[in-house]
Amino acid sequence: MASSKEYINTHREAIREYNRGWRRRKYASDPIFRAKIREAQRKKYAEDPEFRRKQNQARADWASRNPDRDKLAGRRGHLKTYGLTPEDYERMLNEQKGTCAVCHCPPFKHRMIIDHDHKTGKVRGLLCHRCNSALGHARDSSDRLRLLATYLDKFVSV
Predict the structure, then answer these.
(1) Which of 123, 151, 122 is nearest to 138 (CA)?
(2) What would the pLDDT profile of 53-106 be if each residue is shown by its tens digit?
(3) Smallest Cα–Cα separation from 115: which of 136, 97, 96, 94?
(4) Contact between residue 129 and residue 100 where contact means Cβ atoms under 8 Å apart
(5) Residue 10, C-beta contacts closer than 8 angstroms, at least 6 positions apart
(6) Pick from 134, 144, 148: which is nearest to 101 by CA?
(7) CA 60 to CA 152: how far, in whole Å?
(8) Sequence-distant (≥ 6) Cβ neighbours of residue 123 within 8 angstroms
(9) Which of 12, 65, 88, 157 is deepest in the core (most CB within 10 A)?
(10) How many domains does the chain have?
(11) Could you tell me if 150 and 143 are in contact, meaning their C-beta atoms sit under 8 angstroms apart?
(12) Is 143 found in the same domain as 87?
């Protein structure tokens, strides 16, 4: 009968593969296990420049091999910031008939931007780049926007 050392040596790859599968399943199903793994990876990434370099290189390599998936993953991550899915975004865009919630123009060069209340984080709608910038410069103040409109109205030539 073979010793456990001999068994491990002859079946090393099969054991590794089994353990990888177990870790994948555990990571997918156990939020506590997932949090511990992610925390350890964040710590290693922060403290080990060589690990960070390898991770960044692997990420860049994957992105160059999978440009469509990379773009989708980035978009999903951005939407997730606001608690939205791509389906939620499309639904909102359809409800707005594909146009800006403020000026009702179709998007020009960029996708519609997710407008949200910076205090509560609640999503208000989808805006074009120009309307979103205007709100940002006015610091989301409706009083400031009314003052700007009044100012502009003084100089309207009839």
Answers:
(1) 151
(2) 999 999 999 999 999 988 888 888 889 999 999 999 999 999 999 999 999 999
(3) 136
(4) no
(5) 2
(6) 134
(7) 48
(8) 82, 83, 84, 92, 114, 115, 116
(9) 88
(10) 2
(11) no
(12) yes
| Tokens coding 27 | 């990571």
Burial 1-27 (b: 16+ CB within 10 A, else e): eeeeeeeeeeeeeeeeeeeeeeeeeee
Tokens, residue 42: 């964040």
Mean pLDDT (the chain, rounded):
92
Assigned token pair, 82: 């606001």
Tokens, residue 108: 């020009």
The SS3 assignment for 36 reads helix
Contact criterion met (CB below 8 Å) for 113 and 132: yes
- Please check whether residue 118 lies inside any domain of the structure: yes
What is the span of the domain harbouring residue 32? 4-65
Nearest to 91 by CA among 102, 103, 81, 79: 79
Separation CA 37–CA 51 (nearest Å):
15
